[in-house]
Structures are given as C-alpha cells and as structure tokens.
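Researcher: Quick test of sequence recovery. Tokens follow.
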C-alpha cells in the first residue's frame, strides 16, 4: 500500500514538474549560458572593434560570457542570415552597420528579411571625412566643387567596394554636388587609402576613425567632415562639416545597431535592451569611442521602436540614392 502511494506521489510530481517546465516556470533565468554577438564582417574592422567593446560591457551587465563571432561574406548578408535563422532565445545576436539598411537596394537575394530581426537599439554613429590626394589643386570645398565640375566625370573617387561606407558616402556626395565622378572600387579600405596617399586616385570619403591619422600627418588633404557637427577629435576640430562648407544639409554617418532573431521572448528582448543601455553608459566604452570621434547613442534611437523608425528612414533614403545612381541590384 505504502509503495503504491509513494509511486502515485512520484507520478504526480513528475506531471507537475513537466507542466511547470512546459509553461516556463522551471526555466533558468536568462542568460544561463554564453551569448554570441555575430559580426558579419572580418575581424579587425570598425564593426568588429565596436562589437568587442560592447561585448565586454554587456558581459558586466548580463553576468555571462559574451563571445564575438565573425561570419563574413557577401557584404554582410551571410552573417545576418545566420542570426535571422538562429533559435530566437536571446543567445545569438547581431551587430551590424548602415549596410543592413542599404542591402535591400543592392542585393536581389539576401537570404533573409529584415522582418526576421528584432531591433534592440542603435549603438553608435561616426562621421566620415572627404579627403584628397596630396597636391590636389583645390583648397577648400568651394574650389573642389568647381574643380570636379570642370573635370566632367574624369575625377576619380576611391571606395572599399559596392555597399561599403566609402561607396555610400561617395554616392551621396555625387548626388549633392550634382556632378559625376569615376568610382574606383578596391578590395577594402587599406589599399584604397594607400593609393590616395600615393596619388594614384584623387578623392575618397572615408570613416574618420581610419582617416584621422593620415590627416594629422598631412599625408592627405581634408575637405570636410560628413556629420552634422564638427568632430570633437582635436586633429579634426578645425575641419568644417560639408554642410557648413557649401553643401547645406549634407549628413552622412556610419552607425551600428544590435539585433536578435524575430520571435525572441519579449522579456528577453527587454532585458537585452536594458543591458545595452547600461553598456553604453560604461565610462570606459564611452571614453574609447569619443577618443575616435564616435558618438555613443543616448537618444530615442536606443529604444527598439526608435531604432526601427530610424532604420526604416535609412532604407528609404538609400533606396532613392542608389536608384538615382543607376546601380542595379546584384
């Protein structure tokens, strides 16, 4: 009799336990294992650097290991697709830049839809600089505008490949100048920068984090900063924005955002957004970013809704710019 009663109680406990697990009450609190930040580009680049900085700050807030995984290829679409298809549990996240908003206009087949991603908040944004080769005749943007127009499309503009920040900035610049230039694509920023310093190409629109050392060393000529405000970096402080130098309203920044797979539980998304907010207040992270002229986001774009609204605006903006440039999706 006692054995039957014990067996009955054990069966009941198992059933209750199963119900609790199924309903989520017995689950361990998120996170209970390492979180992976997928960067859809090679190690060592700007996106990789910010992801590693954010990973360190998120580790402090989440209380778990945060790993960075580089899944490069196809303009960032391979790594993005990996996260879009990942289990929506908050353990596989994506750090991506402006290229996520331009990809729909540049690629026919992405391997994912942006609706398959949950927006967690914008991380940062950084301006680029318009630089020229040493000895380029024009001094200042007004002279450069006249020089470009007189060249009738012969002046060349280096970039790190279709869809890169330097390429996008160049497209926006060409549209604002209403003058054509010859775009010269390279396999990355390093060879493009090498050739502009060597005088093989005329102009380049490059992220300030990469161009500042060359500007400071006078290895290139600086014509303007692409952001809405002048850079706080001492070496760039005296350089006007392109907007104030003659292209009113010109504003180009390279931004990064954090994403999770669509379907991730709301409670996990909320915890991740709070962790991101805390991470971006980390004095060590803010100091590192500001030293490079990068602005850490502190406005409404840090919220999921604000991030999504900004992203949609960027998609519309770049779709128009890319279409007007006559670029056909690959």
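Model:
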């Amino acid at each position: 009799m006692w054995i039957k009663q014990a067996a009955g109680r054990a069966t009941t406990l198992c059933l209750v336990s199963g119900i609790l697990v199924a309903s989520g009450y017995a689950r361990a609190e998120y996170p209970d294992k390492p979180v992976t930040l997928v960067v859809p580009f090679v190690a060592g680049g700007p996106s990789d650097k910010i992801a590693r900085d954010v990973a360190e700050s998120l580790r402090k807030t989440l209380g778990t290991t945060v790993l960075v995984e580089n899944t490069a290829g196809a303009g960032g679409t391979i790594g993005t697709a990996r996260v879009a298809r990942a289990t929506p549990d908050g353990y596989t996240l994506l750090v991506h830049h402006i290229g996520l908003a331009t990809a729909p206009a540049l690629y026919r087949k992405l391997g994912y839809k942006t609706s398959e991603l949950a927006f967690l908040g914008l991380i940062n944004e950084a301006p680029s600089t318009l630089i020229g080769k040493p000895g380029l005749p024009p001094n200042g943007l007004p002279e450069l505008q006249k020089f470009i127009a007189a060249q009738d499309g012969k002046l060349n503009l280096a970039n790190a490949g279709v869809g890169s920040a330097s390429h996008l900035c160049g497209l926006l610049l060409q549209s604002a100048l209403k003058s054509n230039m010859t775009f010269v694509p390279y396999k990355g920023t390093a060879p493009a920068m090498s050739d502009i310093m060597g005088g093989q190409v005329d102009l380049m629109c490059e992220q300030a984090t990469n161009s500042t050392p060359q500007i400071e060393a006078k290895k290139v000529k600086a014509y303007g900063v692409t952001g809405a405000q002048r850079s706080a970096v001492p070496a760039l402080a005296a350089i006007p924005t392109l907007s104030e130098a003659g292209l009113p309203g010109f504003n180009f920044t390279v931004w990064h955002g954090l994403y999770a797979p669509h379907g991730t539980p709301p409670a996990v998304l909320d915890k991740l957004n709070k962790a991101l907010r805390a991470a971006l207040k980390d004095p060590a992270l803010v100091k590192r970013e500001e030293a490079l002229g990068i602005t850490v986001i502190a406005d409404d774009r840090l919220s999921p809704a604000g991030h999504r609204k900004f992203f949609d605006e960027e998609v519309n903006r770049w779709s128009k710019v890319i279409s007007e440039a006559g670029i056909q999706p690959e």
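The radius of gyration is 24 Å.
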